[in-house]
Design brief:
By secondary structure, the chain is an alpha/beta fold. The protein has one domain: Rossmann fold (3-Layer(aba) Sandwich). 30% of the residues lie in helices and 21% in strands. It is built from 6 helices and 7 strands. The chain has helices at 12-15, 30-42, 119-126, 138-150, 168-180, 188-194; strands at residues 3-8, 46-52, 86-89, 103-108, 130-136, 156-164, 184-186. The protein has a 7-stranded parallel β-sheet, with helices on both faces. Helix 4 (138-150) runs parallel beside helix 5. The mean pLDDT is 95.
Length: 196
Amino acid sequence: MKAVFFDIDTQIDFLLPAGSLYVPGAERLIPVLDRLNHYAATHGFALVSSMCAHTEDDPEFRQWPAHCVVGTIGQLKPAETLVEKRVTVAVPLDEYSLEGAQQILFEKNQLDITASPNFQPLLKRLKASHYVVYGVVTEYCVRFAALALLTTGQPVSLVTDAIETLRAEESQRALTEFTSRGGRLTTVAEVCKAGL
């Protein structure tokens, strides 16, 4: 099975209390994000880490407070969530090599990862037979990614103890929508035990 792990928007601005768009409680995810990302890397599974990459006057800031501005500390991922061999796929559509990469830092400048012109071409290159999704925030960016991956026709697992939410009720609706469309809920222990 060729699994691809999707680590969604686990950046300092979201995960840490000092972040500009902090998700309460998200810092508790860092150890499990570390575990999942390094599990993927050591087992040879592709790891796609989406990252908001905004300009200072990004249109998204009309709806949300400024966050993840390129060049700021808040836009970075915590060191624990990074693996050794990385490649960055920048927001402008451009050529890139995946040769030797254990982690693909996939930049995006919109809430929905599928709005990136790089998203579908990347999926074609990775040729996954199974997707594993986790990160923040459940009812927004995680939901967009998980539902988009379901449309590929491949199994998609959402790691429930490696996600965090802003609003519990909306998060529950997102999980219900995901499972009603054929998605599977799992845990970090199950993913790492399964050997995929």
